[in-house]
């Protein structure tokens, strides 16, 4: 049985940070459609050129494009035992697409929502700095890089993502409420949804997430 951990929550909730930690702990790859799209934009591919205008304005890239990216990535051999999804699915259509990729009973799905208030998200995203080299995230106040404006892991100059500007962040939060939040009910009906408080430290939040994931995986193994 393959394990799909879906980290769910608004932009700025800390999905990427937690996904990378969970990936180390479980040994499954963390798959971020946002990272794949940003790489395509940076490389100037056809995909990147068509995705760019959506991303820069805070809108969702169309489902068929993102579903294609996710399918290609999830069919790769390193996802054979499991994977961690960060930022995908974001619409009901995408959630149905993931379900349809695998035979029922072959997939143990664990969805963990990270709950954070809007004002906290706005503050976090405005101060967020990202390393274009290794994707590590920093915050100018709460977790600055030890190397100033360079990444303390790989030395690359840190940047503020264009879509972390206040105006675009507001649009991303609106899009989250309208398109992505309804997924909570989609997964509650399937009895695979749990939620954690995302206002604590990275370590505390990680402890809560990994507790839920371990419990659900053991339950999935026992009922298989
Ligand atoms: P993220 O880094 O996950 O916040 O993604 C950055 C941007 O990439 C989003 O604001 C969207 O424009 C686009 N994107 C990433 N994942 C998806 C997705 N699953 N569906 C649609 N658009 C996405």
Fold topology:
Blueprint: E1 2-8, H1 15-26, E2 30-32, H2 33-43, H3 46-57, H4 63-74, E3 82-86, H5 92-101, E4 107-115, H6 118-126, E5 128-130, E6 137-139, H7 166-180, H8 183-189, E7 193-197, H9 202-223
Parallel strand pairs: 1-3, 1-4, 2-3, 4-7
Antiparallel strand pairs: 5-6
The site of adenosine monophosphate has 17 residues, from helix 2 and helix 3.
Which labels suit this protein?
9 helices, five-stranded parallel beta sheet, single chain, alpha/beta, binds adenosine monophosphate, two-stranded antiparallel sheet, globular, Rossmann fold, 16% strand, 224 residues
The number of distinct β-strands equals 7
Highest CATH level, the class: Alpha Beta
Q: What's the end-to-end separation, in Å?
A: 8 Å
Instruction: State the helicity in percent bands.
Output: 40-55%
The number of distinct helices, counting runs of at least 4 residues, comes to 9
Structural class comes to alpha/beta
Level-2 CATH architecture = 3-Layer(aba) Sandwich
């Amino acid at each position: 049985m393959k394990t799909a951990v879906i980290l769910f929550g608004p932009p700025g909730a800390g999905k990427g940070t937690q996904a990378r930690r969970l990936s180390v702990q479980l040994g499954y790859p963390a798959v971020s459609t946002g990272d794949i799209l940003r790489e395509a934009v940076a490389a100037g591919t056809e995909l990147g050129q068509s995705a760019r205008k959506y991303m820069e304005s805070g809108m969702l890239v169309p489902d068929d494009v993102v579903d294609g990216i996710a399918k290609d990535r999830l069919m790769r051999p390193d996802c054979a035992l499991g994977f961690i999804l960060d930022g995908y699915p974001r619409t009901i259509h995408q959630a149905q697409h993931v379900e349809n990729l695998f035979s029922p009973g072959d997939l143990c799905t664990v969805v963990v929502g990270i709950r954070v208030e809007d004002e906290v998200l706005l503050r976090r995203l405005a101060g967020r700095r990202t390393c274009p080299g290794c994707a590590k995230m920093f915050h100018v106040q709460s977790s600055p890089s030890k190397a100033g404006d360079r990444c303390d892991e790989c030395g690359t100059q840190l940047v503020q993502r264009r879509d972390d500007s206040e105006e675009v962040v507001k649009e991303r939060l609106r899009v989250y409420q309208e398109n992505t939040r309804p997924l909570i009910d989609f997964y509650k009906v399937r009895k695979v949804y749990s939620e954690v408080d995302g206002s604590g430290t990275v370590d505390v939040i990680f402890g809560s997430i990994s507790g839920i994931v371990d419990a659900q995986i053991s339950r999935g193994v026992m009922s298989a």
